[in-house]
């Protein structure tokens, strides 16, 4: 390339800080435009002085499908009982009939909290039939046991602060009475042991606000995260509950589409739901990322072409830029290119930390090496999902053809 055209090498590098700042600006606009249901300091603590402390969440059914295997399971479920059950919520712990470890775990938790025994409903469920979503299978069977006004679906590795649940319930109360609205929290991962768990946490913490908040500006949020979401029980019943979606592999996408098809909307909140997932090794991290990227591919396929193009330009292109910029600078090093690269890296690290801090408070932190490594690996995870439609979920292996078409593999 001639000297006159050498500047072209700087273009993909300079695009990184430019698009990064544009994405962050959109997230900040969405954050500032979001209705404030709570005082900001309420999120710093699960306690709030009021006269109805023990009945604060009276009328809320918390559905938690449980499967053993996570070393922090007992700690997390105990926290849910103390935070939500002690404030009046009814916790439905859904275990598999063949999972003796989970049964022993929940029994020990209930025995350790005798005063809260009445706030837990433990139910055992038979093995999931073939071609049925295991999580939705248990949720569907448990829905009939719910009697409250609101239903919260909460993963067994998720901790819901009381203030976050207040915000989700307020969002439902604020919605139109005839709309099947879903309110959902922003996932924030807590530190866990092992490099795989640290990389997974970094991926979520760096990308959650940028992914989930900006669609609020257009009013066309296409999906939810399945870790923590709430609906009014009558609205959930009006869209058929969980039964019509049993053959959908991605439960969050299925429920979001059902609510939107019913004329409803998704109320994405910025308040955090705390996650901690134990991953034994890097292979477990790779499997988890592959599953999430394949689910993202399924979401993209459900969108009309204008939305696909918008997602590709607004999410796909910026995702590729850190790797493209790194490769370009290695191939054609230059001082202008190095400066643009440094600006991109600084915007990535400090800008995303500022967004996380606005949503999660003091839990936000900067981890330069893991953050940049995750950014470089992300395009490769996406490519893997495009080339390989097989995933492993718990003890099951599936070949995924569409959200409602998948087959179990031996």
- Radius of gyration (CA) equals 22 Å
Q: Roughly how much helix do the residues carry, as a percent range?
A: 40-55%
Globally, the shape reads globular
CATH architecture of the largest domain: Alpha-Beta Complex
Number of helices: 13
Low-confidence stretches: 39-51
CATH homologous superfamily of the largest domain, by name?
Answer: Spore Coat Polysaccharide Biosynthesis Protein SpsA, Chain A
Strand line-up of the largest beta sheet? 3-2-1-4-7-6-8-5
Structural class: alpha/beta
**Largest pleated sheet:** 8 strands, mixed
CATH topology of the largest domain: Spore Coat Polysaccharide Biosynthesis Protein SpsA, Chain A
Number of strands: 11
Count the domains: 2
Strand fraction band?
15-25%
- The topology string of helices and strands comes to HEHEHEHEEHEHHEHHEHHHHEEE
Q: Which CATH class of the largest domain is shown?
A: Alpha Beta
Protein architecture, described:
This protein has 410 residues and is an alpha/beta fold. It folds into 2 domains: 10-26 and 305-409, no CATH class; 43-280, Alpha-Beta Complex (Spore Coat Polysaccharide Biosynthesis Protein SpsA, Chain A), CATH 3.90.550. Helix content is 50%, strand content 16%. Strands 3-2-1-4-7-6-8-5 form an 8-stranded mixed β-sheet, sandwiched between helices. A 3-stranded antiparallel β-sheet has the order 9-10-11, covered by helices on one side. A hairpin with a 2-residue loop joins strand 9 (390-393) and strand 10 (396-402). Helix 6 (195-212) packs parallel to helix 10 and helix 11 crosses helix 13. The radius of gyration is 22 Å and the shape is globular.
């Amino acid at each position: 390339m001639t000297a006159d055209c050498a500047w072209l090498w700087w273009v993909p590098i300079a695009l990184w800080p430019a698009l990064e700042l544009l994405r962050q600006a959109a997230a900040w606009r969405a954050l500032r435009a979001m209705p404030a249901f709570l005082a900001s300091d309420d999120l710093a603590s699960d306690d709030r002085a009021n006269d109805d402390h023990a009945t604060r969440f009276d009328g809320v059914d918390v559905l938690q499908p449980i499967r053993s295997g996570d070393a922090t399971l007992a700690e997390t479920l105990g926290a849910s009982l103390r935070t939500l059950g002690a404030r009046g919520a009814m916790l439905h712990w859904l275990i598999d009939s063949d999972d003796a470890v989970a049964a022993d775990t929940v029994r020990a938790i209930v025995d350790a909290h005798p005063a809260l025994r009445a706030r837990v409903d433990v139910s055992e469920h038979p093995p999931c039939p073939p071609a049925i979503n295991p999580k939705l299978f248990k949720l569907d069977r448990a829905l009939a046991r719910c009697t409250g006004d609101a239903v919260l679906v909460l993963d067994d590795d998720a901790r819901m602060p009381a203030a976050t649940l207040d915000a989700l319930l307020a969002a439902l109360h604020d919605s139109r009475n005839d709309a099947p609205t879903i309110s959902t929290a922003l996932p924030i991962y807590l530190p866990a042991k092992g490099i795989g768990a640290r990389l997974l946490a970094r991926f979520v913490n760096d990308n959650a606000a940028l992914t989930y908040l900006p669609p609020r500006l257009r009013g066309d949020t296409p999906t939810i995260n399945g870790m923590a979401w709430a609906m009014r029980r009558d609205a959930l019943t009006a869209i058929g509950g969980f039964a019509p979606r049993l053959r959908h592999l991605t439960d969050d996408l299925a429920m979001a589409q059902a609510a939107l098809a019913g004329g409803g909307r998704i109320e994405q909140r910025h308040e955090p739901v705390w996650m901690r997932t134990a991953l034994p090794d890097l292979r477990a991290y790779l499997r988890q990322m592959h599953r999430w990227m394949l689910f993202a591919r399924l979401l993209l396929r459900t969108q009309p072409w204008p939305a696909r193009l918008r997602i590709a330009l607004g999410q796909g292109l910026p995702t590729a830029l850190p790797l493209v910029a790194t490769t370009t600078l290695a191939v054609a090093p230059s001082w202008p290119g190095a400066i643009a690269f440094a600006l991109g890296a600084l915007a990535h690290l400090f800008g995303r930390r500022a967004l996380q801090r606005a949503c999660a408070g003091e839990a936000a932190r900067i981890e330069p090496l893991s953050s940049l490594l995750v950014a470089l690996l992300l395009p490769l995870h996406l490519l893997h999902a495009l080339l390989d439609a097989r995933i492993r979920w718990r003890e099951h292996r599936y070949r995924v053809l569409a959200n409602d078409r998948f087959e179990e593999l031996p």
